[in-house]
UniProtKB/TrEMBL annotation:
This is S41 family peptidase. It holds the Pfam family Peptidase_S41. One of its GO terms (molecular function) is serine-type peptidase activity. Residues 456-492 are annotated as: Disordered. NCBIfam families: prc.
Length: 492
């Protein structure tokens, strides 16, 4: 009798939750929903009751329901997710360009964590850590055998908490132990410099809240050094995306007029929208137009956009828009192919669901999802070949990835988990045997090929073919789209 009561209570909880979701969806869509699947809900309640009565040890209701929501959302596609309090806060901090840590950019080399660069005025910078230093232990735990993500998590933590790094430096006889205190780190997503007389390099590592203002400052500094730039390289390699308004603004900065930048297509009416290069689409209503401070010459300067398999989402929107309008030459390797919109739906003050709600399309109507952007000029990452880029896992490789949308049967099959694990292992081996790429340096092969193209010199092209899908016999009609409202400002 007790088990039945628990099951009935569970069913009431589940049915009530499902009903509330139905009411929410009904308000958003305006009706035409199917009735609740009561048999399946009873099964869910029965499982809930069995766990409560039969599991080896007691399980909290909150944990069970939270994990049920997590599994339900995660089963949809690789980018939909339930965000608990910690995940929600971390995502918000990331989009604002901040995190708590030591302030170092790192990569794996020979199984250890190598410092690419310490961020200016960070705990690592003030402690004397230099580019090329190697971290061998974190809090006396050997780094050898850790993944890069695991090492990064160990170095992050709460503000004012302590961590101890063991550092090895070339030329030193012995490693040295360095205690550090974590701080909130502000990340600047834009870097720029002159890389040759008359030619500039502008890198965007992620599209954040401050990306446009940072870009305007960097571009103005470049033109202050040389008011007659002959060419600009926009570097979007390894840019995982971020906020949609930043991508719209960066695209608009190089395009004349208020051109269409991207459109979206989804189930909800407000997911079928068109985004233009107007201030209302890339800047908050209360603020002015950040692009108004850009030099007029930016609209006409020759541009080459660098992309690779790590360029995703918002960076693909920029590359696709500039490619469609023939405003820039896209150079590098095929992009990741994440052409889906994730919208935050808050559940409580500190939890939310990140839900895939639409697909992105370039101005010419090309679907980005599971295809990506194919460069105009295919160039490998190094002179010896594609390096790690050929081993990257792309959107089309992910299990349960969203189909392209033009023809659902045309999308390539996702790789099996074993195949993905094998590629991860191969990538790890390659990473241990390869020097980390220093974007923007003289050793940056793709950047040097971009400069060669500007100057009319020979460019070493890749022998690799872009990934393609099967021919699409007939594209499915896209729903009608309408101009978007700018309150959709947190998409990735």
């Amino acid at each position: 009798m007790k088990a039945r009561n628990i099951g009935l209570i569970g069913f009431g909880m589940v049915a009530g939750f499902a009903a509330s979701l139905q009411v929410t969806a009904l308000a958003q869509r305006g009706g035409d929903l199917q009735p609740l699947p009561l048999d399946e809900l009873r099964q869910l309640a029965d499982v809930y009751g069995l766990i409560k009565t039969d599991y080896v040890e007691p399980v909290e209701d909150k944990k069970l329901l939270s994990q049920a929501i997590t599994g339900m959302v995660a089963s949809l596609d690789p980018h939909s997710a339930y965000l608990d309090k910690k995940s929600y806060r971390e995502m918000q901090d990331s989009m604002q360009g901040r995190f708590v840590g030591l302030g170092i950019e790192v990569a794996m080399e020979d199984g250890y964590v190598k410092i690419i660069t310490p961020m200016e005025d960070s705990p690592a910078f003030r402690a004397g850590i230099k580019a090329g230093d190697v971290i061998t232990r974190i809090d006396n735990v050997p780094v050898k055998g850790m993944s890069l993500d695991e090492a990064i998590k160990r170095m992050r933590g709460d503000p004012k908490s302590n961590v101890v790094l063991t550092i090895a430096r070339k030329g030193d006889d012995q490693p040295w132990v360095l205690p550090l205190t974590r701080e909130e780190i502000r990340v600047h997503s834009v870097k720029a410099k002159m890389v040759a007389p008359g030619y500039a390099w502008l890198r965007i590592s992620q599209f954040q809240d401050n990306t446009l203002t940072d870009m305007v400052k960097q571009v103005n500094a470049l033109y202050a050094q040389d008011p007659k730039l002959k060419g600009l390289v926009l570097d979007l390699r390894n840019d995982p995306g971020g906020l949609l308004p930043g991508a719209i603004g960066v695209s608009a900065a190089f395009l004349s007029g208020e051109k269409k930048i991207v459109s979206t297509s989804g189930q909800l009416p407000d997911s079928n929208t068109v985004f233009y290069g107007r201030r209302e689409f890339y800047a908050a209503r209360a603020s002015g137009d950040p692009l108004a401070q850009l030099p007029a010459a930016l609209k006409t300067v020759p541009v080459i956009v660098l992309v690779n398999g790590g360029s995703a989402s918002a960076s693909e929107i920029v590359a696709g828009a500039l490619q469609d309008y023939k405003r820039a030459t896209i150079l590098g390797t095929q992009t990741f192919g994440k052409g889906s919109v994730q919208t935050l739906r808050p559940l409580t003050a500190d939890t939310a669901v990140k839900l895939t709600t639409a697909r992105y399309f370039t101005p010419n109507g090309r679907a980005i999802q599971a295809k990506g952007i194919v460069p105009d000029v295919m160039v490998d990452e190094t002179a010896e070949g594609d390096g790690l880029n050929s081993l990257r896992i792309r959107e089309s490789d992910l299990v349960k990835h969203l189909a392209n949308g033009s023809d659902k049967e045309a999308a390539p099959a996702a790789k099996t988990p074993d195949a993905v694990d094998a590629e991860h292992a191969a990538r790890a081996v390659a990473a241990r045997n390869r020097k980390p790429l220093d974007f923007g340096s003289k050793d940056d092969f793709q950047l040097q090929q971009a400069l060669n193209r500007f100057k009319g010199l020979p460019v070493k092209l890749s022998a690799a073919e872009p990934r393609t899908e099967k021919p699409e016999p007939k594209a499915l009609a896209k729903p009608d789209t309408k101009p978007a409202e700018i309150n959709k400002d947190l998409r990735k």
